[in-house]
Amino acid sequence: MSRSNIKLSRTQKAFTLVEMLVVMVIVGLLITVIMQGFGYSMGMYQRVVRVQKNAYSEVLAYNWLRSTLGSQVAARPKDRGLEGSVNSLSTYTYEPLIEQAGLKTRIEWQLVQSGDAVSLEYREGEATFAIYRWPESTGQFEYLDEKGQWRNHWPAEKTDFPVLPESVRVLINTGKEARNYVVSITTRKRAEVTMDEALYGR
Description:
This protein is α+β, with helices and mostly antiparallel strands. The chain has one domain. Helices cover 35% and strands 28% of the residues. A hairpin with a 5-residue loop joins β6 and β7.
């Protein structure tokens, strides 16, 4: 083999410094792009998880509200019945969150304004639970009467045997939109009162 062939084969096996620098720059750029894409994907994943968790909590709060208010008990003599304002309501229900289902239980729902946020709270006996919180919002309870009018208090009129409203709703105003959480009352609106109860309050 001639000296020229040996010299050519040696030059083909080696990389120059410039070629090495170019390769390192390309590899560095690829790693940077990959890491940025990975970071974006992780951020997107965390946002999706946060939104899903928040939506699940909101649905759970509404289902609890619906189960307790949808099974209310119409007032009988010596019962207090549904007493409601824009900030709170108390009533008897067959679907309490703590006591056994089917037992007539006095409960209370409250909307508590704290700074620029409003929280939905539930009270049963001595126990109180914060159920859900809407940041930068205000809220109120409203009650639908038989004429289809929403009222900000209940009973709509004073009577010995007040009826239950057709529906109860939580109206949340976020500033950008209004959210309605409506619960239809599926139980009997008026109590079955015997003649003795009507005459003697028994």
